[in-house]
Amino acid sequence: MSSRGLALAPPAKNVVVYRNGDPFFPGRKVVVNQRRFLTFEAFLNEVTKSVRAPLAVRNLYTLRHGHRVAELGDLQDGCQYVAAGFEKFKRLDYLNHGRKEFRGTRNSDGLQWLAFFPTFHSCRNTGSSHALGCFYCSVFRNGDLLSPPFPLPLSKSTPLQWDALLATLTEKADLRSGAVNKLCRLDGTQVSAGEELVNGDYYVAVGNEEYKKLPYFELLVPQDSACRTLWYVD
């Protein structure tokens, strides 16, 4: 009787799940076993832990087209999916880790950002971004030695409002502790104004908690990575 039950049980499926809106997350392999997960919600709870999502995963989307997955039976073996909470699906190039595409997006300066790549140490002090009318920093998440730094492109021509910058950092960093309240250098000293930011340098986004002095740069920045490139048109 038990052998018949095993024969009738649906085979396990292997899928790869990415974090919604995170272009640097390499994806996590998850085994879809319907004998283990009796409900789709139970599977989503496992995905939440597997991808270390800051909030509970409540939706899965297909990688290419962003179609919502409604139940376990809809998952296909060997396919990739994007895990999200209640927010909308964010269309990124998840397979090419570190590349994020913006299509038709214009900022207040009328510049269209086509793509950017992660900032690494080999780009520092090149000065190339200054020729493009912008500069950039890379930002770690306080106490997080699993997530690589995210790039923070800034305009030279637009005055930097500190509250607006913290709001942008809050959205990008998505700290478990909540909003970003301060930005620190790697030695722990606090930055208090946009004029103090240095092109190509690395910083740490911090919430209400104390700054955690960890080897962010040594552990999270690949030593042989290519430079980040910024492209824009007037």
From TrEMBL:
SUPFAM superfamilies, A to Z: Doublecortin (DC)
One Pfam family of this chain: DCX
UniProt KW Repeat keyword: yes
Domain Doublecortin, first and last residues per copy: 13-95, 139-217
SMART domains, sorted: DCX
Any one of the GO CC terms: microtubule organizing center
Keywords in alphabetical order: Repeat
Keyword Repeat assigned: yes
GO BP term, example: intracellular signal transduction
Protein name: DCD2B protein
